[in-house]
Amino acid sequence: MINEHLPALIIGIPLLAAFATPLISKINDKLRNIFVIGILGATLCLVISLAFNVFNNGIFVYVMGAKSPGLTLPSGYKMPVRIILEVDGMSIFMAIITSIVSLLGAIYSWAFMHKETGKDKYYTLLLILAAGMFGMEFTGDMFNFFVFLEITSIAACGLVGFRINRGESSEAAFKTMVMYTLGALFVLFAIGILYGEYDALNIATLASRIRYTMLDKIALGLLVTGLAMKAGAVPMHMWVPDAYAEAPAPITMILVANSQASLYGLFRVCFTLYGLTISTYTLGWIIIILGVLSMFIGVTMALIQKKIKRLMAYHAISQTGYMLLGVGVGLAVLSDANALNTYGLKAMEGGIFHIMNHAMYKGLLFLTAGAVIYATGKRNLNELGGLAHKMKFTAIFFIIGAAAIAGLPPFNGFASKLIIYESVYKFNPMLSVIAMLVSILTLASFVKVFQSAFLGPEIIEVKKEPKSMIFAMLCLSVIIIAFGLFPDIVVDKIVAPAANALVNSMQYIAAILGGA
Amino acid sequence: MIDNLPFIACAILVILGLYTLTFKRNLIKIVIGLNLVESGVNLFLITLGYKSNAVAPIYTMAAKEEMVLPTPQALTLTSIVIGLATTALILSFTILIYKHYKTIDASKVRRLRE
Amino acid sequence: MMSKIVRTITNILYSSILIFGFYIIMHGHLTPGGGFQGGAVVASGIALVLIAYGYDTVKSWMKKSNLSVLESIGALGFIGIAFLGIGTTFFYNFLANSGGLFGDPTVIGINPGNLDTSGVLPLMNWAVGLKVLAGLGSVVLLMAYGIRKGDEE
Fold first, then answer.
1. What is the pLDDT of residues C6-20, one digit of tens each?
2. Closest C-alpha among A54, A131, A48 to residue A88
């Protein structure tokens, strides 16, 4: 019985809990924290059980408000009229990331946000952000996608500007909000064009009808621009360092997942919506070029940063480039079955695996940065030093995160980057060389951070990091090492279904329209 | 030509909005630019469902049965609601920025860059 | 605090704005409007009072924490109703055509309108109306608070 309703429950329960949080806050702060963590834990369990369902039985369809959950086409209709949630391998892959990250973010917040006021609003927004991301990942309806996109935008910006005692937070939130809103309006404009042409909002129906006219090209351009803007790819990346640096650390971790949800939207549009009709070669190269630019500009900007979280934010841009590169290569060879099977699919697996790895190690790094700021109250690297004496755990976690982001074995970053290097090399050797060069620069940058923040004599007073923060960082470290040691299992069980789901857009359409 | 007038109007609105966003330095004007883009997009959505000589899609005491397409109106309504929330949030940030920086000139509000 | 003329007009208009807002919420499933629009009308009434009497006076009449509780109840009501339909599907309209509350069958075609139709939609409109009037009301109050503090400094 409960199995039938899983996608709706995964979106509905955090949303319901979000609005119950202010009421529970009135009773007791501790009770509220337990409630939020419990809800997110329950959501994680639901996501995992849905994941088993999807991996075993294929695409999972849920029709909102219909007579039965699987009834996509009521008798007499040739196209779906209701809002449909459609969960395939890629959606569930993203949902796993979202649920892990938001759960650990809530756990970390327990101690991290302890002294702040307005925590009821903080947790409400956190839950809304999580629900919005699940919505973006599960929905099979373009307009619904836009609505959830805006829900995450508003919640995320509320959280970026959460510390209203700092002018910088408001400044960052303003900038982020302008970029998010503009991106979302581009997406809405594109949805309007598609609706005007094909009289449908359902992604599967649209994909089966699309003809790739001039208007469709404009719509595609608007969609790619809008979603890349929100994902923080390079020409539109101005908001990323500000937002990531100013948000509280656990929120930064969730913002990374939020950017990746937009990235998911971008892939969904490129592969499922337009995949059948266009020659994807040009589009693939556009994505690849966006990726290479992001990689290179992100890392070079990171090298000159002085503030710890701002530096990591530029690295986040740079790592987004790897995902775009991997999936872009897959997109470029999508219509060429031979190339797709020899290296295209592999590159996509690398890119998609990197999405998960990035969320984990970047989250860990931001959490360690949060712990450093919590313990010292300083953000500037020049004022930090000798932290390893007092913050042993944080130092170890930082090493794990830094090694993973630089792609050193045996951590997860190495596993996914190796797949990207190998497969991209067969597509175009230059790209692979650039990717490796960026990795080396990343390593250099993190060695610098480690040396200046953690090594050397103790020059400042340091608080000890609380248990809940250590627990959240420990969980992420365990995941990073486990993925690094057994990448084959993860790739086979989780990543390959996601890549296949993106490639087989016919399946996605058939799940709604029934083979027609 | 006369049928295309709304599309031209919404293109003008969007372009004016983008111009305001790019070249104006006053934060309030940036918000206005964002709202202009949004109005353009909303007008576009509404125009998609328009049918000449039809009435609003409401049966209660309607004048006749020929009605415009209701879906774009629902979409526009949702988009207006979202726009309201965004505008309220972004104006609140502007108030906060003014309190901290004593200015709403974007070229002076850049403590983040240093 | 504005002049006596503004305050007198506000006193007269306030109740009618409120009633109009609630009318729009109640008739959301029959006529143009609904929860959001009605809530916005009511909130504009709050804004009018705020302008006429000033932040400090209004603050003593309504508390922000009460508004935020109302807002939570509205949102919980909306999603709660969606959850009530989960016997069939999420958001299923379980009251429509059931013969009970709001359960009359909907008339197709031009008709004067029957308030007792549409199942859960009126209930959802009330929930949204409550949420929006409380939410927008507190937004207006908070913005007034922010500007007032700015004037002081």
1. 899 999 999 999 999
2. A54
pLDDT given at position A516? 44
Chain A interface disruption, residue of B15, B91, B102, B112, most A CBs within 10 A = B112
Class of domain B2-101: mainly alpha
Kindly report the number of other CB atoms within 10 A of residue C93's CB atom: 18
For B44-93, the pLDDT digits (tens) are 998 888 888 888 888 777 777 788 888 888 899 999 999 999 999 999 99
Which residue in chain C has the smallest CA separation from B89?
C139
For residue A99, pLDDT beyond 80: yes
Q: What is the pLDDT of residues A421-433, one digit of tens each?
A: 988 888 888 889 9
Per-residue model confidence as pLDDT tens digits over C82-128: 888 887 888 888 887 777 777 777 777 777 777 787 888 888 899 99
Chains that touch A (3 or more CB pairs under 8 A): B, C
Closest by Cβ to B59, choosing from C111, C139, C153: C111
Q: Do B60 and C147 touch (CB under 8 A)?
A: no
Candidate from C72, C90, C92 with C-beta closest to A12: C90
Q: How many domains does chain A have?
A: 1
Alpha helices, H only, A268-391: 280-303, 308-332, 337-339, 345-376
User: Comparing C-alpha atoms, which of A194, C36, A193 is closest to residue B41?
Assistant: A193
* Measured CA distances, B5 to A185, A189, A215, B11 (Å): 21, 17, 18, 10
Q: Decide if A369 is inside a domain.
A: yes
The subunits that touch chain B, with at least 3 C-beta pairs less than 8 Å apart, are A, C
Q: In residues, how long is chain B? A: 114
Residue C86, domain extent: 4-152
Is A63 close to C92, i.e. CB distance below 8 A?
no
Q: Answer yes or no: do A178 and B72 touch at CB < 8 A.
A: no
How far is it, in rounded angstroms, from Cα C22 to Cα C26? 6
Q: Do B92 and C146 touch (CB under 8 A)?
A: yes
Q: Where are the alpha helices (DSSP H) in A88-246?
A: 89-112, 119-138, 142-160, 167-198, 203-209, 214-231, 239-246
Neighbours of A471 (CB within 10 A): 14
Pairing between β-strand A60-63 and β-strand A84-87 as defined by DSSP bridges: antiparallel
Residue of chain A minimizing CA distance to B31: A178
Interface of A with B (CB under 8 A): 143, 146-147, 150, 153-154, 157-158, 161, 164, 166-168, 170-174, 177-178, 181-182, 185, 188-189, 191-192, 195-196, 201, 242, 245-246
The interface predicted TM-score of the complex, written ipTM, equals 0.94
User: How confident is the prediction for chain A on average, in pLDDT?
Assistant: 88
- Region of residue A466 (phi > 0: left; psi between -120 and 50: alpha; otherwise: beta): beta
Looking at the domain assignment, is residue A492 inside a domain?
A: no
Contact B90 A167 (CB under 8 A): no
Dihedral-angle region of residue B61 (phi above 0 means left; psi in -120 to 50 means alpha; beta otherwise): left
Total domains in chain C come to 1
Query: What pLDDT digit, counting tens, does each position of A190-248 carry?
Result: 999 999 888 888 888 888 888 888 888 899 999 999 999 888 888 888 889 889 988 99
CB–CB contact C76 A20 (8 Å): yes
Q: Which of B46, B58, B60 to mutate to test the interface with C (most CBs of C within 10 A)?
A: B60
Residues with Cβ within 8 Å of B113's Cβ and at least 6 positions away in sequence, in order, are none
If contacts are CB pairs under 8 Å, which of residues 11-70 in chain B contact chain A? 14, 21, 27, 30, 34, 37-38, 41, 44-45, 48
What is the spatial distance between Cα A186 and Cα A226, in angstroms, rounded to a whole number?
5
What domain range includes position A284?
279-485
Q: Residue A306 in contact with residue A381, Cβ under 8 Å?
A: yes
Give C66 to chain B, closest Cα distance, Å: 20
- Cβ–Cβ of B48/A167 closer than 8 Å? no
